[in-house]
From TrEMBL:
The active site is at C382 (nucleophile). The lineage of its organism: Bacteria, Bacillati, Bacillota, Bacilli, Bacillales. Belongs to the class I-like SAM-binding methyltransferase superfamily. RsmB/NOP family. This is 16S rRNA (cytosine(967)-C(5))-methyltransferase. Its main location: cytoplasm.
Amino acid sequence: MKTTRLRNLILELLVRIEKDHGFSHLLINQEIKKNELNPKDEALLTQIVYGTLERKMTLDYYLSKYVDPNKKIDDWVRMLLRMSVYQMVYLDKIPDHAVIHEAVEIAKKKGHRGIQGFVNGVLRNIQRNGVRDLAEIKDPLKRLSVETSHPEWLVNRWIQQYGFQTAEAICRANLKEKSMSVRIQPLKISREAAMAELEQEGFTVKPSLFSKQGIQIEKGNVLSSKLFTQGKLTIQDESSMLVAEMLKPEPGMDVLDSCSAPGGKATHIAEKMLNEGIVYAHDLHKKKVKLIEEKQRTLGLSIIHATAHDARKLKEKYAEASFDRILVDAPCSGLGVINSKPEIKYEKSEQDIERLHTIQLDILNHVADLLKDDGLFVYSTCTIEKMENEQVIKSFLKENPAFTVDGDFFKELPEELQSSIGVTEYGLQLFPQTFGTDGFFLTRLKKGT
Ligand SMILES: C[S@@+](CC[C@H](N)C(=O)[O-])C[C@H]1O[C@@H](n2cnc3c(N)ncnc32)[C@H](O)[C@@H]1O
């Protein structure tokens, strides 16, 4: 694709992600498919879109030396400046003059002469005199916020919960390049065979510590691998693979997955059950239930019964003590997955966290009665907010004294993980900086002590 067209596509994508609050990874994949981009253009588009998004606040600060932040300019012009400065500051392989030329071409096509001159003037100034210096920010909280492009309220929350050093490590880890991980479908292939095939295809791989089904992909985009197209692999973060491990489902069991779409964990559970028994998988949104069915089909599984249902109304559907295992992989703020979905950090608010705490606790309280006396109950979220994790469990245990945290799960973890994983009184809290996984919380509860 011609470079100006590609830059224009990138600009439109960025404006859409910001305006429609779209999920960046879904929109990026859609555009890549629609425009049949070659691997080089695909890589550049992905890098500029993610880079501009995840550094948005830093880029605005850099620009503030030449553009008054309160100046009224069209969204697309501001975004064009951001993506150009991103390329000038962070990408070595594209010369500044080429970046400026492309930006001015786009401004000429989309705007009037005034805009073209404005874009040209700002970018030439940056080329000559550099961007605004971060050292001008003296307050450490403000500086961390701008330097790592996380809203101040969020950085402050993490400092209050975990201290400055950990908050800083979280912010920096959210900007680091993350390697992919996959889970094998064990009824179709062994981990050893899958690793050998992937290596033959040119991928650099490593077995995961988190699950015997997991493989870390250190180099290469596994979506293009033969194994993936054959339904022998699923993309899944290693932290989230721990969920089915912790749930310990067995063949023949009745399992409830109350918040199931798109089915990443339901399919893992079904695989561990050797596709024998039943996984009752529900999600509030009917449209999303189709995704569970699709995933089950792709992986050649059949024991997942997926229907739309509010987890807070499942007692209307099932009798008490119906399930051997229950998973509540709760709706959450997603503040542990900022690395792969950077828009989350700009869109969530403290009110969202409070609202979600209530929903999470309501779901747990409601489905708890559905567990058999000797059953196991796992709660998980992809966030690092204590209010959505430890505090939910703490309140649940207070309201449901028959339950306790099942500490055995810790002893079941591989030794290498035990020494560095974050264990609290209420479960495991993984941070993105520890193993390069998503930030994730999970715990196992049982009846009795
Ligand atoms: C973290 S996601 C689940 C991810 C899924 N377990 C997986 O591994 O692919 C949380 C899900 O909860 C669903 N959800 C939100 N509120 C719900 C409710 N009241 N009852 C059931 N599902 C709900 C959301 O639609 C979302 O798909």
